[in-house]
Amino acid sequence: MDLRAYLNSLLGQRFFPSEFGYDVENVHGIGVVKSIFEAKVKIRRAVEAEGIPYTYVLSYYFNAFCLPRLAQHGATAPPRDKVVIQGDGNPKVIFNKEEDIASYTIKAVDDPTTLNKILYIKPPPNVLSINELVALWESKIGKTLDKTYISEDQLLNNIQEAAYPLNLMLSFDYSIFVKGDHKANLEIEPSIGLEATKLYPDVKYTPVDEYLNQFV
Question: Which residues form the NmrA-like domain (predicted)?
Answer without folding.
Answer: 13-212
